[in-house]
């Protein structure tokens, strides 16, 4: 959800309830949208001058929860809420389907009767490629584009071209492609100090790698330990792909606060991150893996974001804890080649400490009238061109290239971190381990107002919640823009202190409200509506 709310805030909702800083009116309207939460809150507490409270205690939350239930039962309230949610959704739809800088080309709603000419297609593609106003090339966007440099893009495009019609579902037709896929897995295993017996598969991305690892451990637990009600333990900072996997497969996900880990008999796996998405912090993998080992359960290390940075930290001269197959108890690792491996998007590797786990991951169906069928991952047919692109990126960059990119990008994070630490209104969260640094603001300054001020300056920082914070995932593009970032942060803070009404903008209102709400239903409605809007013409 945080990613989606990011997008929402990027659109700076211009709904009338968010437009002007008129405290009473704003509160009245939001009260209607959000089950009267804001109103109840303002009775009990004075609202901080820079914005909404950043966090709310669980006790306050349960009290609010009670009041909101009463409030919701008042006749007519649900109707008002629904119409307000509808209004916000219409606004979002408009911003998505008619963005600033939209190329003036007709929408293609149905197949053209007679196909377009090549010139026309090229013209439309060029215009659409330039739609939008976020200048990612300037290095102001957190993560998102893991650019390996102009020359590498040229090379991977050629590789993609050569395998333009290939499909790895048919290794007999494309034996050379199969070989490259196996080599990608082998090269990645080697980086993670895999034992002789280890193995892996390629997938379409981090999410699929994680879903596959959950499936493998789940099958193992079901087949060998008769587990019918599987649980999984992970820190709250684990990537939301684990929530997705658990929702898909009916696994109970036990999210534990950072620092306190517990074991349970029918837990099928523990998961930890090296590094986690929100704060770029590495979990204590050795400690978690030890618990897993002692309980005879699996231990997954999410190195999707750590990808081709973490294995090169030592060689690049940085200190790093143990996170790979050298740690006893680690049974699987996911690593995104399409992040800091600089492969084209749609590429990741999931690795296992032994072949049995990989077998449990596979899907096999021997009774299909269409023939005996087996496929390693979720997809059936797959784009072989992406494997060729990934292979070309990995082999052309090589160890020396990745060590240099690790030095540069982690160096960029360290510079930014030092800059943030020098600003007395900001606090870095935890101990950043590689390329990501997260920070929050010191009360009464609202971190989401800083996000809005930074967005206005062209930055695309990521919004976090629980606790409210922002982060930047450094990439090759952010190398060299560190001073500009720190400078803009200082100016944003100055501006907010001088104009506290900044809180009327998108992120401040959206996240301020969303995190304080005792009930997430309206936020979920808006978020689903956002996804619907993506498929509107
Ligand atoms: C990006 C990421 C993932 C999921 O990757 P996708 O490629 O977006 O599916 C998983 N874990 C972490 C820590 C990530 O940063
Ligand atoms: C696409 O594939 C065909 C058939 O293999 C090949 O002849 C052609 O050169 C490829 N295109 C590019 C751009 O490489
Ligand atoms: C699982 O169930 C089967 C069949 O009911 C039984 O034979 C087996 O011993 C059980 N295994 C474990 C580990 O409980
Ligand atoms: C596992 O734990 C759940 C509770 O989360 C329990 O209901 C279930 O019976 C337990 N045992 C097995 C074998 O799944």
Automatic annotation (TrEMBL):
Which residues are annotated as modified residue N6-(pyridoxal phosphate)lysine in the UniProt record? 339
Q: Which Pfam families match?
A: Pyridoxal_deC
InterPro entries (UniProt xref): GrpII_AminoAcid_Decarb, PyrdxlP-dep_de-COase, PyrdxlP-dep_Trfase, PyrdxlP-dep_Trfase_major, PyrdxlP-dep_Trfase_small
The enzyme's E.C. designation: 4.1.2.27
What broad class describes the main subcellular location of this protein? endoplasmic reticulum
- For this entry, list what GO says about its biological process: carboxylic acid metabolic process; sphingolipid catabolic process
Q: Which pathway does it take part in?
A: Sphingolipid metabolism; Lipid metabolism; sphingolipid metabolism
Recall the GO molecular function terms of this protein's record: pyridoxal phosphate binding; sphinganine-1-phosphate aldolase activity
Q: Where in the cell is it found?
A: Endoplasmic reticulum membrane
The annotated topology with respect to the bilayer is: Single-pass membrane protein
Question: Per its Swiss-Prot or TrEMBL entry, what cofactor is needed?
Answer: pyridoxal 5'-phosphate
Residues in coiled coil: none
Q: What is this protein called?
A: sphinganine-1-phosphate aldolase
Q: Which organism is it from?
A: Furculomyces boomerangus
